[in-house]
Specification:
157 residues; alpha+beta; two-stranded parallel sheet; 7 helices; 29% helix
């Protein structure tokens, strides 16, 4: 059975669709979208700080009491690590950074490198029933503000 999260984000990243349960429950994207969630990323190459073993949740800042309460609530999560603001032509954005639990560190690495056959049973138990053999990951789309000049070039290994 497909979750509602597939229809509530425009062009969701594979990170949003498959890794959100590392931080929130597997159907959280629908609720997060009501608070301005735009997408979820593996990294943000435009950030001045570098974060390890984190997921990046990008929100449009909404000037409402509900958004203020929401951000205070998620800042109390054990996994909450940091946040930072960005100005764009379309308004202000806020990136919330969450550190994944140690039990998922290898899964995050495996996902990022499209090594889906290495995903742990622990992760697969919290994820939707997904046939990862059908997932095609383009890491450039999974990283916010991806700049090709920052990519590590892999030679014939």
């Amino acid at each position: 059975m497909e979750s509602v999260k597939f229809v509530l984000l425009e062009n969701p990243t594979k990170t949003a669709l498959h890794l959100t349960p590392m931080i929130f429950n597997k159907d959280a994207l629908a609720v997060l979208r009501t608070y301005g969630l735009l997408n979820v990323y593996l990294d943000d190459y435009g950030s001045s700080k570098k974060y390890k073993d984190c997921l990046f949740f990008l929100f449009k800042i909404i000037d409402t009491k509900e958004f203020q309460e929401f951000q205070h609530k998620i800042a109390d999560f054990n996994s909450f690590y940091d946040y930072y603001d960005m100005q764009t032509l379309n308004g202000s954005l806020r990136m919330f950074v969450f550190k994944i639990h140690d039990v998922y560190r290898r899964d995050l690495f495996s996902f990022r490198h499209s090594r889906f056959d290495e995903l742990s049973n622990h992760f697969l138990n919290i994820a939707d029933e997904i046939d990862f053999t059908q997932v095609k990951l383009n890491v450039c789309e999974e990283i916010y503000r991806f700049f090709p000049s920052l990519e590590i070039i892999k030679e014939d290994l």
